[in-house]
Predict the 3D structure of the following.
Amino acid sequence: MTYTIIGLVLAGGLVFYLTSFRNKSTTTNQHTKSETATTEKVHKTEENAYEELRNMAFKVTPEQLALSLSTDKTIVYGVVMDWEMGGATATTVAYQTGDASLYLSSGGGVIGGGKHQNVNSASKQFISLAQTFLDKTAKAEKTSLPTINEIKFYFLTNKGVYVGQEQMKNFENNSSLWLKLFEEGNNVLSELRKTSEK
């Protein structure tokens, strides 16, 4: 019952997110050269670059993240969580470095949230937990969007991309084997939202 309430609250928050970003102009989605590594701003997208941003998330390599991963086992260094909600999709992206972003298919989102400690910690915890779910995934042949009321978890690893999926109803009735990972993904989403409201 608790999980259902949490799920409904988070779903309500996401619906608010989807509608508010649709009607609101925000700052540019371009990281300018004048920005420094100490910049603490979260960048919100202005134009709908959802497809491009989501595709770019899948192309990020361990080398680009300055990660040195062992080659003798499969290691999750990033997760792309796609959540379909009534014709729109929210994509939460997190990496082992703590960086995290949110892209909305309706337009808008939050980029670079990992610069904030709350998001950074939540992102790292999400990735760490994802490693324990790797045995529930299959090698992804494509990175398609979820169908109606479906959530997809794409694991970026040093051995390729893996995917797992679940129906929202199974999170709502607490029967999903993916429930804990879904909760951690929602924690990243929640921390991104808090940061963007500051």
In short: The two ends are 31 Å apart (CA to CA). Helices lie at 2-22, 50-59, 117-131, 168-172, 179-197. The first strand starts at residue 43 and ends at 44.
